[in-house]
Structure formats: C-alpha cells, structure tokens
C-alpha cells in the first residue's frame, strides 16, 4: 500500500511539473523578418488572374459554359 501512495504522489508531482512548465516555460515564438518583393504595376486589369474572361469560364459536364453565372460582390478577393 505504501508503494501505491508513492506512485500516486510521483504521478501527481509529474502532472504539476508538466503544467508548471507549460505555463511558465519559454513559449515565445521565434520571430523572423520576412521580406518578399512584389511587382507594382506589372500589368492591367485585363491580364489579372482574378478576372476571368468568357473563354476561361468553367464549363459544365456537357462542355457548354453556364448561362447565368454572374459574379457576386465587388470583385475583391479579400
């Protein structure tokens, strides 16, 4: 019975230690600066990949483009 009490006490102590480490441990994320160049003014709205033309419209199983597919919203992808 004494061995069982010692085992329970060790398990309880391990759980408390794990919770303390998780709460007080070094959990700050490492921050790194990321710089990525972008092309400004590298085309017009007609060549933008966000604007699909009729030729690029998705087709149905029969091969014909859907008749009443209207874009919704203001065109922003954000």
Compile the SSE list and pairings.
Elements: H1 2-24
Give a verbal description of the structure.
- This protein has 78 residues and is mostly helical.
- Helices cover 29% and strands 0% of the residues.
- The chain contains 1 helix and no strands.
- The longest helix is centred in the first third of the chain and has 23 residues, at 2-24.
- The chain is rod-shaped, with a radius of gyration of 30 Å.
**Biggest beta sheet attributes:** none
Q: How widely separated are the two ends?
A: 64 Å
Instruction: Give the number of DSSP strands.
Output: 0
Gyration radius from CA atoms, angstroms: 30 Å
Helical fraction: 25-40%
- Residue share in β-strands: under 5%
**Which structural class matches the secondary elements?**
mainly alpha
Shape, principal axes of CA atoms: rod-shaped
Count of individual helical segments: 1
Rounded mean pLDDT is 74
Extract low-pLDDT stretches.
none
List the secondary-structure elements in sequence, H or E.
Answer: H
Which features would summarize this protein structure in a list?
78 residues; mainly alpha; 0% strand
